Amino acid sequence: MGVGADLGQCGGMSDYFGKKELRRSSERRVLAGVCGGLGDFLGIDPNFVRLAFAVITLFMVGGGVFLYVLAWLIMPEEGAEGSVLEHIIRNFQGKRSDY
């Protein structure tokens, strides 16, 4: 039997490789956990991600700050049901949101 047969028995590719989710980190955070979450997702040190945001901020005149705030709004925190933006939209629509 080949590798494909083994993967079929354990439930598919996501079970074999593990499922990664892009979420803000609750442990490796300095501000909102965006860089920690991106670092965990990409498998790199979050300090490299922080450095990238700093470089983008310097060379794109605040572009890194914009991207960081956008990521904070979109990325849900570990253990949370949804993102901050999702919570804001639900409140605006008058729906109950368990944030």
UniProtKB/TrEMBL annotation:
Annotated transmembrane regions: 51-75
Cellular compartment(s): Cell membrane
InterPro entries recorded: Phageshock_PspC_N, PspC
Keywords tagged on the record: Cell membrane, Membrane, Transmembrane, Transmembrane helix
Identification of the protein by name: Phage shock protein PspC N-terminal domain-containing protein
Superkingdom in the source lineage: Bacteria
Keyword Transmembrane attached: yes
Topology relative to the membrane: Single-pass membrane protein
Residue ranges that the Swiss-Prot or TrEMBL entry lists as coiled coil: none
Domain called Phage shock protein PspC N-terminal: residue spans: 20-78
